[in-house]
Specification:
Largest sheet: 7 strands, antiparallel
Mean pLDDT: 80
Strand content: 25-35%
Number of strands: 28
Helix content: 10-25%
CATH class of the domain at 134-303: Mainly Beta
Distance between the termini: 112 Å
Length: 525
């Protein structure tokens, strides 16, 4: 077969005609479309008249209130970019990075470095920088910034970016992990920074407007709107932390931490801290630290270098309806029950007793254990504080001089743990509630590390499925009182049940691992 070299390819006449016709059609269509295009400005777009919607005169200012507010608040909120720096060893041998010295030459040659051996991989130390992103609020013209502890914790460098895209290096002035508050300051000398106006978070009410400003997902200067959903929230199970969160439905997302929560007047009322989420994103519940709490911590860190918190020295419990009935209180009584008073602590010296009901601290009412704890912590050590209590159904005021939280003996519990139960003698039975109680013998006292002044009976068994088990009784609990009557023997224990009928409330005072507390419930019929 001869090669078809140098010859032009043959195109059938029919194919040529078809291509020419298609080209003519395209040209004609384009020319037609071009001729149909209108001249610029010849078409009126949109309606010629605004929608006839009348805004009541008193609502006219409301149209721009949030935009006006954002203009004032956004400049006071900054991006906080913490950087952690680690040293990482790199090698030109990729296997060395993953497996180290696979043949054990380092061990064989002792201290000799691998680079000293001929043909060994060359090692190089490099910095690995990991950046985070949070927010902060400028609180002084010379560069103090409020943010969260978890935003800057462990940072080797901190960069601050303002809303007008200026960048500064900052340093940590102080941090408080127990309340998740930190104070940082711009290193260089600055002046004239926009500063947030600090409001009064104690005046907040559920339903008030709430506006969150921050940098969610690296989207700087974002503004979201909502309301205050609730106050005095706890969001973590850590009993050592101080929590008094403002709950809001203003959208808060990762990166908002440390940002501003402001009210309708543009006043800073909280520092955004965390979200409740099952997906990692916003689900309608966010939490902020009240500004009054954050401000006190900030001032302590700046002026003293540490946070000073008041300490009362009591074990406290919630006052539920059953406990109110057991104490003979009215159903609407709000307060906190004192389950124990630590010896030689401020409350003990001021005359507090087990069973006292705390109604107010320094003129401010308290209705939960968390609220009482935060009220005391907000006061400075050394301050003499009036505390209103109910004792024996009568109100009275005690004056207590608080000490410092760090100076107080906070762990009053015994170090002993439950051991295998030994055989005991002299045990009397009381089966009304499913509790088997026995005398506090010298052996029991030694095993449970009880002091000589502890009197009562010991729970030696809780019957499975009984009401006692359902109410949370445990073996080795010490029953000190029943219905405010001291129990010093098994005889007292049995006698205490004689006048109690099913359906009535009963109040126990128990001691467990060194801590005393009340337990109230109704005996099942």
């Amino acid at each position: 077969m001869k090669a078809n070299v140098g010859k032009r390819p043959f195109i059938p006449v029919s194919l040529f005609v078809a291509l020419l016709a298609a080209a003519m059609i395209v040209y004609t269509t384009c020319s037609f479309a071009e001729s149909k295009r209108p001249e610029r400005g010849s078409v009126d777009f949109g309606a010629t008249k605004q929608p006839d919607i009348k805004t009541p005169p008193h609502l006219e200012p409301f149209k721009t209130i949030f935009a006006d507010l954002a203009e004032k608040v956004v400049p006071t909120v900054v991006q906080v970019i913490p950087t952690k720096i680690d040293t990482v060893i790199f090698s030109n041998n990729p296997f060395y990075q993953f497996f180290g010295d696979p043949f054990g030459f380092d061990d064989f040659f002792g201290q000799r470095h691998p680079q000293q051996r001929r043909g060994a991989p060359q090692l190089e130390k490099r910095e690995q920088r990991q950046q985070g992103l949070g927010s902060g609020v400028i609180v002084s013209k010379n560069g103090y910034i409020l943010t969260n502890y978890h935003v800057v914790a462990g940072a080797d460098e901190i960069e601050v970016k303002t809303a007008d895209n200026r960048s500064f290096q900052a340093e940590i002035i102080g941090a408080d992990s127990l309340a998740d508050v930190a104070v940082i300051k711009i290193k260089e000398k600055v002046s004239g920074l926009p500063v947030a106006y600090l409001g009064d978070s104690d005046k907040l009410r559920p339903g008030d407007w709430a506006i969150a400003v921050g940098n969610p997902f690296s989207l700087s200067s974002s503004v979201t709107l909502g309301i205050v959903s609730a106050l005095g929230r706890t969001a973590m199970a850590d009993v050592n932390s101080y929590q008094n969160f403002i709950q809001t439905d203003a959208a808060i997302n990762p990166g908002n931490s440390g940002g501003a929560l402001v009210n309708i007047d543009g006043e800073l009322i909280g520092i955004n801290t965390m979200i409740y989420s099952r997906s990692g994103g916003y689900m309608g519940i966010g939490f902020a630290i009240p500004i009054n709490m954050a401000r006190k911590i900030m001032e302590d860190l700046i002026y003293e270098g540490k946070v000073s918190r008041g300490w009362l020295g009591v074990m406290i419990q919630e006052l539920d309806q059953t406990t109110r009935e057991a104490f003979g209180l009215s159903p609407d009584t709000k307060g906190v029950l004192i389950g124990d008073v630590f010896k030689d602590q401020p409350a003990d010296k001021a005359g507090f007793k087990r069973g006292d009901i705390v109604l107010s601290v320094d003129g401010k009412k308290v209705s939960s254990t968390n609220e009482l704890r935060n009220r005391i912590a907000a006061l400075r050590p050394g301050k003499k504080v009036p505390i209103v209590i109910i004792r024996n159904n009568k109100e009275q005021t005690l004056h207590v001089t608080l000490t410092g939280r760090d100076d107080a003996k906070t762990d009053q519990s015994s170090e002993s743990k439950n051991e295998a139960r030994d055989k005991r003698e002299g045990v009397d039975m009381a089966q009304r509630l499913g509790i088997k109680a026995g005398a506090v013998t010298p052996e029991v006292r030694k095993r449970l590390n009880l002091s000589s002044n502890v009197k009562g009976v010991v729970v030696i068994e809780v019957v499975p499925g009984s009401q006692a088990q359902q109410e949370g009784f445990a073996e080795s609990d010490i029953i000190l009182e029943i219905n405010r009557t001291a129990i010093e023997s098994t005889g007292d224990f049995k006698k205490a049940f004689k006048n109690i009928k099913p359906g009535e409330s009963i109040l126990f005072l128990l001691q467990r691992e060194g801590n005393t507390f009340f337990k109230a419930f109704k005996i099942k019929k």
